[in-house]
């Protein structure tokens, strides 16, 4: 056995790819934060239109967040399977 066969293959990312990955994560988090902020701004209008109390508004926010989070996993899987440009 040679010494090189015992070594695990390491794939070192270039600094540009690391920064690009960090930028993608930051952009995704900003998008999610902006999306939830828009929902919170719309809550008074929703409360007036639906005549909802505080408990019902909490359910609206929780339901929106759960659905949004549950759709992110399949969206990532579809992006991996079919390619991000086609999705």
Give the topology, please:
Elements: H1 3-6, H2 15-50, H3 54-82
Helix pairs in contact: 2-3
Please give a structural write-up.
The protein has 87 residues and is mainly alpha-helical. The chain has helices at residues 3-6, 15-50, 54-82. Helix 2 runs antiparallel to helix 3 (54-82). The mean pLDDT is 84.
Q: What is the mean predicted local confidence, pLDDT?
A: 84
Question: Which structural class is indicated by helix and strand composition?
Answer: mainly alpha
Rg, Cα atoms, Å: 21 Å
Secondary structure: helix percent: over 70%
* SSE series: HHH
Would you identify the regions where 5 or more consecutive residues have pLDDT less than 50?
A: none
Please work out how many helical segments DSSP would assign: 3
Specify the biggest β-sheet: none
Count the beta strands.
Answer: 0
Which keywords apply here?
79% helix, 3 helices, mainly alpha, 87 residues
Structure at a glance:
With 87 residues, this protein is an all-alpha fold. It has helices at residues 3-6, 15-50, 54-82.
